[in-house]
Amino acid sequence: MAKRKITKQQHRRIQHRQQQHLDNQQPASTDNVDAHSGTVISHRGKLIQIEDLNGKVISCHMRTHIEKPVCGDQVIWQSDDQANNAVIIAVQPRRNEWDRFTRRGERKVVAANVTQALIVVAAKPEIHEGLIDRYLVALENRDIQAVIVFNKIDLLSETQHLAYRQRLGLYEKLGYPVIETSVKQAHGLEKLHGVLVHEISIVVGESGVGKSSLIQHLLPEEEIRIGSISTAHEQGTHTTTTARLYHLSAGGHIIDSPGIREFFIPHFTPEELTQGFREFLPYLGQCQFRDCQHQQEPGCALRLAVDSGNISRQRWLSYLSIAGELTA
C-alpha cells in the first residue's frame, strides 16, 4: 500500500507537535496519558522494542509520519492503559548516525548515538585493508572512535600471526587501537571488556569474522545466533539480521549489527574523503594548487608525503580507489 501523502500544512503541524514533545517531555494532550522517555533497543517486525528509564522493555507502535527510529535512538512514547498498547510520538535529535549504502546508493540508517565502533576482522574471511579504510573514513567523519579487533588468532601459525600483525601494525601507528582476540583461547577478552566501559559501541565487520561469538562471550546470559564460514567461498553466513542493543554488566552498551560483504560510501564529498584519512590532515592546504584533486597534479603535498614515506603507499592507493568510486 502506498504511503499516504500529507500537505505542507499537515507536515508543519506534525513537526510542531513533535517539537512540543521534545521541549516539554509531555504530549500535547495529557488526557489519562503520560509521556515517557526510552531507548530503542531493537525492531521486531512492525513493533519497536524500547527500554524505559526503569529497564523495562516495551513493544511500541510508531506514530505515522515521524522519522523511523533506529537502535540507540532516544524517543518519547505514550501508553494507553485502556487500549493496552504504546506508541512512539517523537524521536530525540541524534548525536550521530551509523548508516550503510547498497551498491545502488540506497541508504539505510542502522544505529544512532554511538560513541565507538569495533571493526572486527579475522584471518578467515581474509582481511581486506580497503574495507577497514572505508570504515575508518566513515567513522572519522562521524566523530566516532574506532577500535580494530583481530579475532580468531587461534587459527594462525606463528608465522601467519606475525604477518598479520605487521599488516595491522600500520593502523596502530596511526593511533587506532588493535586488540587481538580468541574466544576459544579466552585471549584478549579482558582487554576488550576494558575498551567497552562507558561507551556505546557498535560492532561492525564482514559476516563470519566472529562478531556474534565475541558478543556471546561478553553477554553469556543472552542467546546470540552464531554462524559459520561457507567452505565453498570462505565467506561468512549472515546470522544477525537486525541491530540489537545490549547492556554490559561492567558498564557501557554494545550494538550488534548485521554483517556485510561490501561497504560503500558513495555520499562522501572529496573533502570528506581526505578528512577521513587522519594522516593526510597535516598536508591538506599545502598543495601547489588550491583546487588540487590529489591525483596527478604537480606539487601535490599528499603525493610528496607518500614519496617521502610519511604516508603509507598502501593507504594512498586505498584512498585513490575510494576516490575513483566517488567520481565514477
Please state the oligomeric state of the protein chains shown. single chain
- CATH superfamily membership of the largest domain: P-loop containing nucleotide triphosphate hydrolases
What is the CATH fold-level name of the largest domain?
Rossmann fold
Helical stretch tally: 8
What can be said about the biggest beta sheet?
Answer: 6 strands, mixed
Order of helices and strands: HEEEEEEEEHEHEHEHEEHHH
* Structural class by secondary-structure content: alpha/beta
First and last CA, distance: 35 Å
Q: Helix content range of the residues, please?
A: 25-40%
- Rg for CA atoms: 22 Å
Mean pLDDT: 84
Strand content: 15-25%
The total count of strands amounts to 13
Give the overall silhouette. Answer: globular
Identify the CATH architecture of the largest domain. 3-Layer(aba) Sandwich
Strand order of the largest sheet: 10-9-8-11-13-12
Count of the domains: 3
CATH class of the largest domain: Alpha Beta
